[in-house]
Amino acid sequence: MDLIAKVEAVFHRRGHLQYGDERREPVTALEHALQCAQLAEWAHAEHSLVAAALLHDIGQLMDGGSTAPLRDDKHELTALPLLRAGGLGPDVLEPIRLHVDAKRYLVSTDPAYGPGLSEASRHSLALQGGPMNAEERLRFMTQRHASAALQLRRWDDLAKRPGMRTPPLGYYLALLEELLRDSHAPERLRIA
């Protein structure tokens, strides 16, 4: 089964689940993923970052994942082996890997950010280590994809609107397929 089919299967099997336990978000996992991808697209993000926006929480939906963790489930890491083996590169994988740290960074640097988080997001922040200290912030910001992760994080926080109209999953799977095809295409020699 190729990556596109695997991603589609995960969303069809568990995308209907709501986020959180008693702190439920007002959208399903699939609605959240589609909204996040749409926000990235509206911001004219590169296709790799739109793909990261779509897939950033898929680790919560994979077998053994939880949308209502009682401990840090490390969902930002769970799907990386599957996505990497499927052919996605660091421009997709690294923002996914860093999006939890981006929340921790923003809480520690932007006084207006924390109060704007949903109850479920504040709960998961506590499980994920809380605000970063100065050393963690420095380490985070020296990573090549930190800026992309911060953009993804902002969309992640906004992508929780009940009833928001988005393109269907198939639209973003086609974008993902195009991204995979382009990443496997041989470099073209330019002749001046």
UniProtKB/TrEMBL annotation:
<feature type="domain" description="HD">
    <location>
        <begin position="30"/>
        <end position="102"/>
    </location>
</feature>
<dbReference type="InterPro" id="IPR052567">
    <property type="entry name" value="OP_Dioxygenase"/>
</dbReference>
<keyword id="KW-0378">Hydrolase</keyword>
<dbReference type="Pfam" id="PF01966">
    <property type="entry name" value="HD"/>
</dbReference>
<dbReference type="GO" id="GO:0016787">
    <property type="term" value="F:hydrolase activity"/>
</dbReference>
<dbReference type="InterPro" id="IPR006674">
    <property type="entry name" value="HD_domain"/>
</dbReference>
<protein>
    <submittedName>
        <fullName>Phosphohydrolase</fullName>
    </submittedName>
</protein>
